[in-house]
């Protein structure tokens, strides 16, 4: 049965891609294509390699969001995000200094770039610009299509942080599909609410115990790439430290693969930064405790601590406590927490944030409670 389901899914995906190609060619022949754009996603890298993803689309007409936008404004923008038309098999050139590489997008317009550097980057952790240019096809308006992506290269970091987003950083009600859809569709980066004290806690993790390092923070979510700009704006608006975001292709054939998606990203990050320990942050609403425990099993000694925000019932709490006991037996503390201040207190007690940062987290929590 599983093999049959996989075969049906592959066939349906191929049919979807064939239809998308036919639609694109029909619009091209009829002169109905909108101008093209390159949407880069924040990337990550090392001193010798840079990794960047992005997508080539027809311009979507999404307007800048504001605090006073109506629910209709937000719904209209969200509809435009999900109705976006990709440019299949687009050819993109990425440049970093004198280093260039060309890549071809897939049928959904997604592309990946890997730049090998002839000389290692030096200096502190920072964001590095990567220039992107559309080589083919030509935009319908005849104008060149360019964009600039950013790649985070952590050098001198003490540890890295991998964090979930929904119900970990931003209130989403992910355990209820209808509530989550209501929140996502009718709100924007200004009106969606962060958990109290998250910005101060993540900033403390970024700066480390000496309050002077620059530890990278990576955000992993099963939210679709269609709302990437909303989540990026959310971090900026609410003062949560910027970091690469790893989302999913919005497709009925991959929506259920939350565990596979998140585990794959975490494994890739641990492999990319073999000398860096990590802190994992999530919530009890989905499978974060199970996923993070699997990471501890696979990478003994690499995970400094795990923080699980409690957003579920007592029955689920008992399950999380059992998982926490197993993690502890493997040498990693998995700490279920009721609020951000509790996570900050534990982080200070094991020396991964400065003790004085706890007061700031408490103050931010009280100010927004």
Using only CA atoms, what is the Rg? 21 Å
**Separate helix tally:** 10
Question: What's the count of strands?
Answer: 13
Bin the strand percentage: 15-25%
Please tell me the CATH architecture of the largest domain by its name.
Answer: 3-Layer(aba) Sandwich
Mean model confidence by pLDDT:
88
In helices, the fraction of residues equals 25-40%
- Principal-axis shape equals globular
Structural class: alpha/beta
Order of helices and strands: HEEHEEEEEEHHEHEHEHEHEHH
Main β-sheet: number of strands, strand sense, barrel status? 7 strands, mixed
Beginning-to-end CA distance, first to last residue: 49 Å
CATH topology of the largest domain: Rossmann fold
- Total number of domains: 2
The CATH superfamily title of the largest domain: HAD superfamily/HAD-like
Largest sheet, spatial ordering of strands: 4-3-6-7-1-2-5
Q: In CATH, what is the class of the largest domain?
A: Alpha Beta
- In the predicted model, the low-confidence regions spanning at least 5 consecutive residues are none
What does this structure look like?
The structure is a single chain. A seven-stranded mixed β-sheet has the order 4-3-6-7-1-2-5, with no helix packed on it. Strands 10-9-8-11-12-13 form a six-stranded parallel β-sheet, with helices on both faces. The chain contains ten helices and 13 strands. Helix 5 links the parallel strand 9 and strand 10 (245-248). The model has no long low-confidence stretch (mean pLDDT 88). It has helices at 2-30, 71-82, 177-186, 198-207, 228-237, 258-272, 288-298, 314-329, 340-349, 357-368, and strands at residues 36-45, 49-58, 91-96, 99-104, 110-116, 126-136, 146-153, 160-163, 217-224, 245-248, 278-283, 303-309, 333-337. The chain folds into two domains: 33-153, Immunoglobulins (Immunoglobulin-like), CATH 2.60.40.10; 160-368, 3-Layer(aba) Sandwich (Rossmann fold). Helix 9 (340-349) runs antiparallel to helix 10. It is an alpha/beta fold. The termini are far apart.
């Amino acid at each position: 049965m599983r093999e049959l389901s996989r075969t049906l899914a592959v066939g349906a995906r191929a049919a979807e891609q064939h239809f998308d190609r036919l639609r694109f060619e029909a619009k091209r022949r009829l002169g109905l294509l909108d101008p093209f754009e390159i949407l880069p996603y924040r990337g990550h890298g090392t001193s010798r390699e840079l990794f960047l993803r992005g997508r080539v689309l027809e311009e979507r007409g999404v307007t800048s969001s504001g605090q006073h936008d109506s629910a209709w404004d937000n719904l209209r923008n969200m509809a435009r995000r999900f109705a976006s038309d990709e440019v299949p098999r687009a050819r993109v050139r990425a440049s970093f200094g004198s280093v260039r590489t060309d890549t071809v997008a897939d049928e959904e317009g997604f592309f990946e770039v890997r730049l090998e550097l002839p000389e290692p980057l030096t200096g502190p952790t920072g964001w590095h610009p990567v220039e992107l240019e559309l080589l083919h096809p030509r935009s319908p308006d005849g104008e060149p299509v360019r964009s600039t992506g950013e790649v985070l290269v952590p050098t001198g970091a003490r540890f890295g942080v991998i964090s979930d987003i929904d119900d970990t950083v931003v209130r989403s009600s992910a355990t209820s599909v209808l509530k989550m859809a209501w929140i996502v569709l009718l709100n924007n980066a200004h009106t969606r609410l962060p958990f109290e004290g998250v910005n101060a806690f993540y900033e403390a993790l970024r700066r480390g115990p000496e309050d002077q390092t620059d530890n990278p923070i990576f955000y992993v979510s099963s939210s679709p790439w269609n709302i990437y700009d909303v989540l990026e704006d959310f971090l900026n608006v609410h003062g949560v430290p910027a970091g690469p975001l790893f989302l999913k292709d919005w497709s009925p054939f991959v929506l259920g693969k939350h565990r596979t998606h998140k585990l794959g990203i975490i494994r890739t990050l641990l492999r990319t930064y073999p000398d860096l320990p990590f802190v994992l942050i999530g919530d009890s609403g989905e499978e974060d405790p199970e996923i993070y425990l699997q990471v501890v099993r696979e990478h003994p000694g690499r995970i400094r601590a795990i923080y699980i925000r409690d957003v579920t019932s007592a029955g689920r709490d008992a399950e999380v406590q059992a998982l926490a006991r197993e993690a502890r037996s493997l040498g990693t503390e998995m700490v279920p927490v009721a609020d951000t201040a509790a996570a900050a207190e534990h982080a200070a007690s094991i020396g991964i944030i400065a003790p004085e940062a706890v007061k700031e987290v408490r103050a931010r929590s009280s100010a927004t409670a």
